[in-house]
Amino acid sequence: MLPRIGFLGIGLMGAPQARNVLKAGYALTAWNRSRAKADALVADGASVAETPAGAVRDADIVVVMLENGPIVADVLFAQGTAAAMRPGTLVIDMSSIKPFEAQDHAARLAANGIRHVDAPVSGGTVGAIDGTLAIMAGGDAGDYERAEPVLRTMGRPVHVGPSGSGQLAKLANQIIVGVTIGAVAEALLLAKRGGADPARVREALRGGFAESRILELHGQRMVDRDFATKGRSVTHLKDLDNAIEAAGRLDLQTIPYAALTADLFRGLLANAGDLDHAGLLVELERRNEIAV
User: Fold this and answer.
1) 63, 172, 236, 253: most buried, per Cβ within 10 A?
2) How many angstroms separate the CA atoms of 25 and 152, rounded?
3) For residues 132 and 105, is the Cβ–Cβ distance under 8 A?
4) pLDDT for the residue 230
5) For residues 121 and 84, what is the distance between their CA atoms, to the nearest angstrom?
């Protein structure tokens, strides 16, 4: 018999993730701060709870997909959700939060006999819809084995280490993605300034050592000047700031590429708003006083 799932956070990512869990045959009770988003899952077979505590009371496994660490802590602890869980319940927190926050949550839950895996994701809304998310999981090996079947309904999970390691892997992912977006934007800006066709430059680079999913997808968005939000810049900046803070806690003197990219995102948000993170091109144009 499949475990019963409580799912907290039915947003842009959580809704398609929950649908994939339902498609796999799990019984699922959903909660979201704005109930209408959770109600949209009823047609897919979900039950809906008025409170997060109500969503987890009968759950064997609780999936959390919320905006940041303070919100996760508020929902789990201040709102009495953890207190409503039965001993032995497993919490899979798929939110992107700070590594030390994940470790703190795991310890507080363990004091009440509740298990915890931190399992942030990469792949955006497309990956959430298609069930192809990259899932980076931290926690006890036995807890990961228990979580893995549920995680596989949403994507490709990999156990990367003890508690907090999933969040560290997500920060590593966000450094690579953010720095690469900045590099592609800078390269295409240089090419265009010199008179080359950015679309043809992107095409010429495909298949060589510069090839990447970023060049493929975000490079095309830059060529098309399609900055409608698919990956939020404000979220990416949060993750880069978390990476810089984590580096300090781990006694690293500097992670300069992350710091520079965070500065670019800060400028983008201040001057153009929360565009897609491919909008780093817009910020580079602004800093070079290029009118488009």
Assistant:
1) 63
2) 13
3) no
4) 85
5) 26
| Marked catalytic residue, from 170, 192, 230, 238 | 170
Question: Could you tell me how far CA 35 lies from the centroid of its own chain?
Answer: 22
For this structure, is 170 an active site residue? yes
**In the predicted structure, residue 22 carries a pLDDT above the cut 90:** yes
Q: Check pLDDT > 90 for residue 166.
A: yes
Chain-wide mean pLDDT for the chain?
A: 97
Closest CA to 237 of 213, 273, 282, 211: 273
User: What are the angstrom distances between the C-alpha of 150 and each of 42, 59, 90?
Assistant: 19, 13, 11
